[in-house]
Amino acid sequence: MQELFVISDCRVVTVEPVGAAGLQVAAQVKHSHACCPSCQQASQSVHSRYHRHPADLPSLGNAVHINLLVRRFYCRSPICPRWTFVEPVPELLAPWARRTRRLAGAQGQVGVTCGGEAGARLLRRLGMPTSADTVLRLVRALSLPECAPPSVLGVDDWALRKGWSYGTILVDLKARRVVDLLPDRTAQTLTDWLIDRDTAELKH
After folding, report:
1. Whether residue 29 has pLDDT greater than 90
2. Residue 65's closest CA among 125, 110, 113, 24?
3. Pairing of strands 152-161, 201-203
């Protein structure tokens, strides 16, 4: 069971079917203590317990939800501004997140490839259902890949609102990708941008 359902820093307790095509994985954090996020002092004094129910990556075509038991600890540092804190599971979940980091990353990558509506339709078939709006939000949250500075730069204008508002689009002509969008099409704005990046050969 542990090999099939690996959850970082957690111990899997049970795996149960839910509905026609769903699984619920009950888990709890392995560690007996947690560190206060403010003062970093470790504590074993449990204040209370509650459950979080994030969605996770699918298994064998089944949508998976984790029933994660988390604890709230007392902070015993007399100078710390926090009285209590929730034990973090940073590799698995962001604070208040409704999906695991690995599921959010997978849904975001589908959104990069397919877009919002098409990505949401595909994700439903893959056992990772979500809305088109959420797909787009996850795409915006993805970190941009590191790219080499452009050596040949194409410059053109683009219409934010045709006939009313225009900006400047900068394109890496060798990699065939958009480098940046400038808020207007004035020479000064482009000059300021180029001063900070002196590696490009300009092509009109």
Report:
1. yes
2. 24
3. parallel
Task: Count CB-CB contacts under 10 A for residue 139.
Answer: 18
> 116-125 vs 132-141: helix axis angle to the nearest 10?
110
Structure tokens at 60: 């064998």
* C-alpha to C-alpha distance for 155 and 171, rounded to whole angstroms: 7
Contacts (Cβ under 8 Å, ≥6 apart) of 88? 34, 37, 95
Q: Which amino acid is at 11?
A: R
pLDDT band at 146 (very low <50, low <70, confident <90, very high): confident
For 78-89, b/e burial (b = at least 16 CB within 10 A) is eebeeeebbbbb
Q: How far apart are the first and last CA of the chain?
A: 60
Distance (Å, whole) CA 178 – CA 153: 10
Query: Of 106, 79, 102, which is closest to residue 92 (Cα–Cα)?
Result: 102
Tally of residues, the chain: 204
Please name every residue paired with 52 in a beta bridge, in sequence order, or none if there are none.
68
> Rounded to whole angstroms, how far apart are CA atoms 82 and 177?
47
